[in-house]
């Protein structure tokens, strides 16, 4: 790949802000190792340009994901800053001037299509899927309908808005047959995912939340498959030390073991990879896009798709880099490959 000037966008306004900054700095280091000239930008920060014209990998800091996600109390302020930064001024001029913008802004506007729409309107070339694909993948209830129509198995799911309605009858039935998993309709990194065993545990914990999905808890093994352009990576398995792969388990060492390639028979591996490719296509990811598709098996061992991640993590503990390594693709190779998809 020719040497380029690349801006890395990370941070942002979502509950995944800390994860995103770790992904951003890791990607910046990888790009400088390949001798690209790199700027690191957090559009939600008071001073959005975190680093200018990086060329030396040793000058790129290595940071870790904190144990708990940031509070949402500052989100309105962070969103105002993000919008202002990306629609006017020096940062927008820089994004238009570089060869490509590398997106590492997980969650919220970074994954629901807002960020991509702003960049599309500004004429900025960026990595990853476009705004419409991100919007389709972001809403778990919408994604479930699309995948079901495409023949990708998904668990039964009920939408519930505690602040606006009584608990639906279908949700009561699921809880009574329980346990169930309750999670925000739109969020990432398993933020606010909880397991509920009885009705009395649901209402107090979720009364103030606006939009949730309730689905049966699947007791089987958990897998993930990454699709990068036309390449399907090996199946990874998440071996949990808790019932759920929540935020803390994802980013704190020792709380989950991730194995790739997964120790499964060839038939199951091919099934999971085929379903991941089908999900990739159903949601509109093309040969220039990439995603990570998550599965969990039911009591009979049949895989069900949990979600599709349009901008999966690129931290040292993230699953996409793990699967890439299992294919012989180093982290700098992977990051350059993601850049290359954007240049097609």
Structure report:
37% of the residues lie in helices and 20% in strands. The strands form three sheets. Strands 9, 10, 11, 12, 13 and 14 form a six-stranded antiparallel beta sheet that branches. A four-stranded mixed beta sheet has the order 3-2-1-4, sandwiched between helices. Strand 9 and strand 10 form a beta hairpin. About 1% of the residues have low confidence. The protein folds into three domains: 122 residues, Rossmann fold, CATH 3.40.50.20; 131 residues, ATP-grasp fold, B domain (D-amino Acid Aminotransferase, Chain A, domain 1, 2-Layer Sandwich); 59 residues, ATP-grasp fold, A domain (Dna Ligase, domain 1, 2-Layer Sandwich). The chain is built from 13 helices and 14 strands. With 344 residues, it is α+β, with helices and mostly antiparallel strands.
CATH superfamily of the largest domain: ATP-grasp fold, B domain
Radius of gyration: 20 Å
Second rung of CATH, namely the architecture of the largest domain: 2-Layer Sandwich
Query: Could you say how many structural domains there are in total?
Result: 3
* Helical stretch tally: 13
- Topology-level CATH name of the largest domain: D-amino Acid Aminotransferase, Chain A, domain 1
- Residue windows where pLDDT falls under 50 for at least 5 positions: 204-208
Q: Regarding CATH, which class of the largest domain? A: Alpha Beta
Q: Into which percent range does the helicity of residues fall?
A: 25-40%
Residues in β-strands, percent: 15-25%
């Amino acid at each position: 790949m020719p040497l380029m000037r690349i801006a890395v966008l990370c941070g942002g306004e979502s509950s995944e802000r800390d994860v995103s900054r770790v992904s951003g700095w890791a990607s910046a280091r990888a790009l400088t190792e390949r001798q690209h000239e790199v700027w690191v930008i957090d559009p939600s920060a008071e001073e959005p340009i975190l680093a200018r014209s990086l060329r030396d990998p040793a000058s790129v800091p290595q940071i870790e994901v904190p144990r708990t996600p940031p509070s949402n109390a500052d989100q309105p302020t962070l969103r105002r800053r993000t919008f202002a930064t990306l629609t006017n001024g020096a940062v927008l001029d820089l994004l238009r001037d570089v060869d490509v913008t590398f997106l590492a802004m997980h969650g919220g506007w970074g994954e629901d299509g807002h960020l991509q729409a702003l960049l599309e309107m500004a004429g900025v070339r960026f990595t990853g899927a476009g705004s419409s694909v991100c919007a389709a993948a972001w809403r778990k209830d919408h994604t479930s309908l699309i995948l079901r129509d495409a023949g990708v198995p998904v668990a039964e799911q009920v939408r519930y808005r505690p602040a606006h309605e009584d608990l639906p009858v279908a949700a009561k039935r699921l809880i009574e047959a329980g346990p169930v998993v309750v999670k925000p309709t739109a969020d990432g990194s398993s933020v606010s995912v909880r397991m509920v065993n009885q009705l009395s545990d649901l209402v107090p914990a979720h009364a103030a939340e606006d939009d949730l999905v309730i689905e049966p808890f699947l007791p089987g093994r958990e897998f993930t498959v990454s699709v990068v352009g036309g390449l399907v990576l090996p199946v990874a398995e998440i071996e949990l030390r808790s019932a759920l792969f929540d935020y803390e388990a994802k980013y704190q060492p020792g709380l989950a073991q991730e194995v790739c390639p997964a120790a499964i028979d060839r038939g199951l591996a091919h099934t999971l990879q085929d379903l991941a490719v089908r999900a990739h296509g159903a949601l509109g990811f093309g040969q220039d896009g990439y995603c990570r598709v998550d599965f969990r098996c039911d009591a009979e061992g049949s895989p069900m798709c949990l979600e599709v991640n349009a901008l999966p993590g690129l931290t040292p503990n993230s699953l996409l880099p793990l699967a890439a390594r299992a294919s012989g693709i180093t982290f700098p190779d992977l990051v350059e490959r993601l850049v290359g998809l954007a240049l097609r």
